[in-house]
Structure formats: C-alpha cells, structure tokens
Design goal:
5 helices; 23% strand; 22% helix; PvuII Endonuclease, Chain A; two-stranded antiparallel sheet; alpha+beta
Length: 190
C-alpha cells in the first residue's frame, strides 16, 4: 500500500499551537528553541552542518528532506553527503572525542530512479564538516571560523574504501581531500 506524500509547507516559527480551535500561549519557535538549542549535540550538530553547507553553496531548497539518498543537491545538480564531527561534546569529557565520519554505502530509497537494492554511495561529493574548536567554554558552532571542511569526490571513497562504513580523520587525510573554510566551499564544489 502506497500512501500519498504529505505536502509540508516551510514553517516560519510563528505558527501557534492550538487545542480545540483555541490558540495556546506557545508557538513553533518555542519548540525549536527547546529541542535544538544544544548545537554541539551530535544529531543537531549534523543537521546544523548541512544547513551551513547549504548556505555556503547558496542552495535554494526550502526545507530539509529526511531520509533521502543524499543530504543536499546544489543548484547545478551535484549531490552531496554532509558528515559532521567534533572534538568537544555536550557532556563532560576527560579527553577529546576521536574524529570519525560515517561513509557507509546504503541501498537508498525505493522512489529513486536508480534504486536496485544494491548498496552504494549515492552522491557526487562528501563534505566532512569538523568543528575544530577545542575549548568547551568558548565553543560556538555558529562561529563559522571554528569549522574546517574536507571535500572529496565520492568516486575516491568508492575506489579506495569501497565497503568501509566509517573513516577516521587520519585515514581521510590520506585520501587527500580538499581542506577549506566556509567561504571557500562554493568554489570547491562548483
């Protein structure tokens, strides 16, 4: 049974919660603030990294699509997988976190025109976003100078580490990705 796709309009954050047609005293941005204020937390940091890359590349998409074969598609049609890691986490640490990124091939989604049930990497490029700042008191993921980006063509991963599910920073560097800052991302991808 195939259910129809739900049309989701982009939200502004000003949408009111209602109960029995009565407006409540809280709005959608209250939820967003409550749910996603910890920008260092792994799940939120990953989505933030996608947003940062989207803005750097001036991608025009209105909203994020969860569970797609790729994270972003550029205005010129290049498909991107965005991965994020950080030395500092939200919790108290005795040492910095080891830097690892997921690069696991997937079967993709059945609605893809190229779907055949075979695991693969569905993108043209991977962008590895590393929050490099190492001071828990001053870390600020909104400060784009605290990020370093590593860009690599997916075909390099497919040739060098075809079945590998994760890659550490040192192993990634051996593959010679292009290292850059926020302002350089657009020129590198295009």
């Amino acid at each position: 049974m195939n259910l129809p796709e739900i049309k989701i309009n982009k939200k502004t954050g000003k949408e009111q919660f209602i109960n029995n047609n009565i407006a409540q005293n809280f709005i959608l941005s209250d939820f967003w603030s409550w749910n996603q204020s910890d920008l260092i937390e792994n799940r939120t940091r990953g989505i933030l990294a996608e947003f940062i890359v989207k803005r750097a590349l001036e991608i025009k998409s209105d909203r994020r699509i969860e569970w797609d074969n790729f994270d972003l598609i550029t205005n010129k049609g290049k498909k991107l997988e965005i991965k994020s890691a950080a030395y500092i986490q939200s919790w108290e640490q005795k040492k910095y976190s080891a830097i690892k990124f997921s690069i696991s091939p997937t079967v993709g989604t059945k609605d893809s025109p190229n779907y055949d049930g075979i695991k693969r990497r569905w993108t043209d490029f991977y962008v590895f976003c590393l929050l490099i700042h190492k001071n828990q008191e001053t870390i600020n993921p909104l400060n784009l100078s605290q990020w370093t980006f590593y860009v690599i063509e997916t075909k390099v991963l497919n040739e060098k580490v075809p079945k590998q599910k994760t890659i550490g920073l040192n192993a990634l560097l051996e593959l010679k990705p292009i290292k850059c800052g926020y302002t350089e991302l657009k020129n590198i991808i295009e």
